[in-house]
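re: ur question from yesterday

yeah so i grabbed the chain u mentioned. its 248 aa long if i counted rite. heres the sequnce exactly as i have it in my notes:
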Amino acid sequence: MTRRVLIAGNWKMNLLRAEGEALAAALAAKFTANGSADMLVCPPATLIAPVAAMLEGSMIAVGGQDCHMKESGAHTGDVAAAMIGDLGGSHVIVGHSERRADHGETDATVKAKAEAALAAGLIPIVCVGETEAERDAGKAEAVVETQIRGSLPEGATETGVVIAYEPVWAIGTGRTPTTDDIAAMHDHMRTVAASMLGGAGELRLLYGGSVKPGNAAEILGLADVDGALVGGASLKAEDFLAIAAAAG
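ran it thru and got these structure tokens back, copy pasting raw so excuse formatting
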């Protein structure tokens, strides 16, 4: 079964409006959609609308970096999933390790946010990944399995959700697991997800953690890797486009 590669960029808390629009314009001008890869950018909430406007008609999708689990209400500073969709977003990242660490988000919180995303018509990108201490202790697969089982939303389908594996110790460090480690984890993730979804042949599994043009082709060539969640390299049009091109 052929799954379309998804190259997603997480801009994190970076760029003001002029910078975001310039980056979006550069991507729109040079990205050529092909038969195997999709491209997505997830800017800060302040930039979703202007970036979506710049990318209109470009075949590059836009998403958010987080959403609240409620549809609306007294939640100062939060963003509802429907608000992201209202601005032109189609996806939303939930459960990124930085949210889990900085904001104390649990698997139950991530699951509730993913369910809110589905209810709003968005595709949640559910992030999972172990710490360096957990990997060194031989617990990496067990930790990721627990996160998947606790974070996947009720009612999810193979094509309605994406799972991104980001080993915490590799994010922004320049370090990456070996390709054998990545392949083994993604195989395990698909097996776990299949037991929950009734199958996972169409489920897209992304790898994230210091993905760059120099290692993208090798990582994307692995059997159960269906794309990448890119951090720092997504802030440079040339690098992000090169990663997308590596998908073939």
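noticed a couple things. The first helix runs from residue 17 to 30. also The domain at 5-245 is CATH 3.20.20.70 (TIM Barrel).
anyway ttyl
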